[in-house]
Design a protein that fits this description.
This protein is mainly alpha-helical. It is 72% helix and 0% strand. Helix 1 runs antiparallel to helix 4.
């Protein structure tokens, strides 16, 4: 095993743990899958729903999405190395 492979593997494992942690920290959705199918997913348009991107919850969602993309890129890099 080469040094870059070991370093990328360690970063990948730490990234996986961080991604799982960020997913577990997110707020649960009350509507669930059936709410989005039945059209009940976006019934309330409250102040918090409209300004969610500025809150800690919105920031956590953005960081989770960015982390997932970076983890996928890292997985491809691991396959190449």
């Amino acid at each position: 095993m080469s040094i870059p492979f070991i370093i990328l593997s360690i970063v990948f494992i730490v990234g996986c743990v961080a991604l799982v942690g960020s997913i577990l920290l997110q707020k649960k959705r009350s509507a669930g899958g059936m709410g989005s199918i039945a059209g009940m997913g976006n019934v309330t348009d409250s102040y918090w729903d409209k300004n969610k991107g500025r809150s800690a919850e919105g920031t956590l969602e953005k960081m989770t999405e960015i982390g997932a993309v970076l983890l996928a890129v890292l997985a491809v890099l691991l396959c190449i190395v």
